[in-house]
Design a protein that fits this description.
The structure is a single chain. This protein has helices at 4-24, 31-38, 42-45, 51-78, 83-100, 102-110, 116-137, 141-157, 163-176, 189-196, 204-220, 227-234, 238-241, 248-271, 277-294, 296-308, 320-332, 343-359, 368-384. It contains 19 helices and no strands. α1 (4-24) packs across α6 and α5 packs across α9 (163-176). By secondary structure, it is mainly α. It has two domains: 50-176, Tetracycline Repressor, domain 2 (Orthogonal Bundle); 189-387, Tetracycline Repressor, domain 2 (Orthogonal Bundle), CATH 1.10.357.10.
Amino acid sequence: MKSTKHLNRKKEIIDTAFEVWKKTHFTSTSLNDIAENLGMTKQAIYRYFKGKSGLITAMGDRVTGEYRENFSDLRAMTEEKERDEIIKTFIKNQIEFFRNHSSYLTFLISKVRLADESRKELMSVLEEQTAYLQDKLNLKATAITYILNLIVFYIFIDFRRSSKELTERVFIQVTRGFGTDLLAMPSNPVKLIEDNRIPDKSDREESKVLQAISEVVMEEGPHNASLDKIARRAGMTKSSLYFYFNNKEEMITETINSQTEAFAEYYFSKISEYEEVGDQLFAHFVLTASMTIERPRTVSMIQWFVLRGIGDNFRKPTEYEKYRVFFENAVNYRYLDTHGMTADQLLLLVNFCVTFEVYNQSNHELEKEEKYELVIDLFDLFIHGLRA
């Protein structure tokens, strides 16, 4: 049995690792950084964990354990309450949990992956919580995860408000939605889904390189992601990568830039086909979901860089301003009610909710067609709220 001193030291290392992750997003650091913060050597950490991967697993176990305890508290608080009070209690509970454990949220959002068992355990708790709230509120699972995504988004953009104020704000948006009476619903959403799906990637060689770049860069960080590692992952020689890129920096930035430019061009060619704002907005949902479904490696790599704030060399797509102005016009002409958000924040919220719902681990077993069907539920929730 480990001594109390050993267990306390292990806990201290995990606590410090969360703080380092929060500040530097961990993959761009090393165990040396954690050791330095603790006033110990890197070798000493190996007495408690089997390297960085062992430490990440322990961090995942910590998050899962405390989130499971929080769910038990939530069940006790909501057992005898009515529907609206259950929703408010859930919102407040999640806001306070993640505010009290802000480093956990950073870990969950920005991690590349948890170890398999940690991920499985965390998903088990999330699924149990979702099933419980589904039963209590008589809602689809999509609605529960939509509420949770809205909560997480607000924690990041409106962290100065009190938990009470934030709870009321999220509750109004969750129950009422963002659509107004001026917004006409799409007449044929199934056809809009068919017409706006991004085509399958045809250039398999480019796809193989992109996958290797995204995997290695996200695992190792941009500084440690060598061309040798990327070439090995792609099953190519290092020299063959130079057929595509002059150096590593160009390889990373141009990969992301070319993907975002291509998406922007395709996006506007599709959006411009519609006159009704409702059709345009639904097409936006479909295109955002389709990018996540058809290009998951690209989406995850872009998010990885954005979250780490190291995307200074990446270009905004040439059509980005039109992309943003579309939402601004929808707000200005009263098709959408922002409930106090800016049009830019509303755009980010839509993209955040669609991407995370479609890319969610719990949806990985779904077929593509089923993932596209989620778009109809998400659009309904966004426009009508729980009235949907």
